[in-house]
Design a protein that fits this description.
The chain is mainly alpha-helical and 72 residues long. The chain folds into 2 domains: 39 residues, no CATH class; 29 residues. The chain is 78% helix and 0% strand. The model has no long low-confidence stretch (mean pLDDT 97).
């Protein structure tokens, strides 16, 4: 019998917790992801400004989503 959708979520969560519990150097584990994220801004004339613009856009999207949720 295959697990239900809720059970799959819980099994995935358990696996994630176990994986992180066995990780000694969290910074090293996430370094490739951080490097890939920052690489998206590397070609911009001002990478720091591009990164700030990206996060400002995320902030605006979040504010709009909160407004829609509040209105509903």
């Amino acid at each position: 019998m295959s697990p239900s959708p809720n059970e799959r979520v819980l099994l995935g969560r358990i696996g994630g917790y176990k994986s992180w519990a066995n990780t000694e150097d969290r910074t090293a584990r996430t370094a490739p992801g951080r490097a890939a994220f920052l690489a998206r801004f590397a070609d911009a004339p001002d990478p720091e400004a591009a990164k700030r613009a990206y996060f400002a856009e995320l902030s605006l999207k979040a504010a709009r989503a909160r407004s829609r949720k509040k209105a509903a």
